[in-house]
Specification:
With 440 residues, this protein is mainly alpha-helical. Among the domains are: 84 residues, no CATH class; 42 residues, no CATH class. The chain is built from 14 helices and two strands; from the N terminus they run αααββααααααααααα. The chain has a two-stranded antiparallel sheet. Helix 3 packs across helix 5 and helix 6 packs antiparallel against helix 9. The chain is elongated and about 105 Å long. The N and C termini lie far apart (85 Å). The C terminus is likely disordered.
Amino acid sequence: MSGRVPTVTSPPWSKSTKTIVTLVLVGLLLLLMMRIDSTTWTSLALTVVFAYLLSPLVGFFEHRLYGLHHYESRRTLAVLMTWLVLFGLMGIVVGLIVPATLSQLRQFAEDVPSLVESTQQDLEEFLSQPITIGDFTIVPWEELQGVVPFGDGTTSSSDNGTFSDTLQSTLLSVSDSALTFVGGAVSLVVSTFLMLVMMFYLMRDGPIFIDYFVRGTPESYRGDVLRLFHELGLIWNAYLRGQILLGVAVGSATYVATLILGLPQSLLLAILAGFLEFIPNLGPTLSAIPAVMFALTTPSSTIGLDAGIGFALATIAAYMAIQQLEAIFLVPRILGNSLDLHPVVVLIAILIGSNLAGLLGVILAAPIVATLRLFGRYIRGKLFDEELFPAIAPYSAQQRGMIYQVMHYFLSKRFPVLPPSGTEDWKRITSGGIEPVQKR
């Protein structure tokens, strides 16, 4: 062959050819995505989420490495510093929290038999009270004993095999379980290693990937793509990092409240409340159930309340107060208006997410729905020539609740607001000593 570069002679594709090729490629891509199992998708999702969460810390270190002018070296060193900080914090948390958590778990395991026995006695005493309906009198506990079968604890079986056959089957089952465990452990180690490698490249080259994607779109749509990335950043920043802050705040408040109430296992209840904060709407309610169960079965160690309905009502009131403080003060300032999803939509998304991706689907249901809504609004705006990205009302204009109005009234009385500098009112106040006029 000669060194001359061959000339492309094919004619441009027609519109119908482009459509057919695009549909075929999209179909093949969807078929490939359907062939990937849920475990692989979960690993990929966790890798992207963790890399996205750590990206601000990488940028923080990168901007302070002034001596390195080479981008890859500076970015790589920033990623390594981020991992050192992350593993250091994890070591501190493991050293401080894990021993106390294991101690409380051990104590809880020791208290379970007595808790079950006391609960059974209380339930039997409550159900043993007769209930009269007209001419009929029933005792629920007696009716329950008649319905639930009780065995004598003995079992009978026929001798269908020899001792050697039984021993052989037992050894085979144990060996199969051991092989399954070893295979699962090896698979977990390999998956973790691959996730860490992917996280490294995503944390180091994430901005480059976004730039490649933007440059790969038609020039007339690059502004729209950049705006979509901006809106997606608002959604996922507010949710992922916001939920971490909310989890820490709610977990700390729950720990203090359970200590004041004298509930057992305060640290476990606080950790549970912090983790369940990632489940919108349902998480706070689920975190209150174990605390109420403790209040029904164990007396308070601080405020002198006996186990029962009264202690349970006090526990419910404390958890409701934490939820209200979170909804009024924390959620508007941390999450803002980025999600703005109706609770019914969130619950439906949680059901679908749990069916598709398990626990990860439950945690990421709300931001995924908000992301789909963002793309739906964009497509609707293009289809009907509407505004693509409606302006969000200012934060101050959104706070019009009764509690906000009361706080604003007293704070405005205590701290008067001056008119803007340079205006006639400002000159008159600063020169003549006139009291400032309240803004309404």
